């Protein structure tokens, strides 16, 4: 199956095994079955999504690992380094969760929640415990429906 993600000129194309996609994503299961055009062409287009985040999503389906450094010692970083590394990592986890929600992949959503939980055990450059990144919170709230478990989880850990 070919999955095209993003808009030109930044669109990227990914090849994936149909069995993997339909096993872990209700979205792909439905898109690749029945009388949908995608079912015949074996091409799925996700123009509104970020290719980098889809690549992480797809990587998780195959490896069952998110590239999140839950064990990294952020206390050794300067404030600037912390801002660019840790905050970006938090944002990616939130975006992966939202993609899991959109593509109806419980396994990816659960992995993202466990990654956030792992991040809560880390300390920042000041030695303080993790607090959810505002951009991650925003992405999850804007990308999920009211009552979504990830929203409640973020409130609980705040």
From TrEMBL:
Domain BTB: 1-70
The organism's place on the tree of life at top rank: Eukaryota
PROSITE patterns membership: BTB
Pfam families xrefs: BTB
SMART domains: BTB (SM00225)
Protein name: BTB domain-containing protein
Source organism of this protein record: Polyplosphaeria fusca
């Amino acid at each position: 199956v070919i999955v095209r993600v993003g808009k030109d000129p930044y669109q990227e194309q990914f090849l994936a095994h149909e069995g993997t996609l339909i096993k872990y994503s209700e979205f792909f299961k439905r898109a690749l079955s029945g009388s949908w055009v995608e079912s015949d062409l074996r091409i799925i287009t996700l123009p509104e999504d970020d290719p980098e985040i889809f690549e992480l999503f797809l990587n998780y389906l195959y490896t069952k690992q998110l590239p999140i450094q839950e064990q990294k010692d952020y206390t050794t970083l300067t404030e600037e380094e912390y801002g660019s590394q840790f905050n970006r990592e938090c944002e990616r986890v939130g975006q992966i969760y939202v993609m899991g929600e959109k593509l109806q992949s419980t396994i990816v959503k659960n992995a993202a929640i466990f990654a956030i939980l792992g991040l809560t055990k880390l300390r920042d450059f000041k030695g303080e415990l993790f607090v959810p990144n505002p951009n991650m919170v925003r992405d999850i709230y804007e990308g999920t429906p009211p009552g979504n478990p990830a929203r409640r989880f973020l409130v609980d850990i705040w």
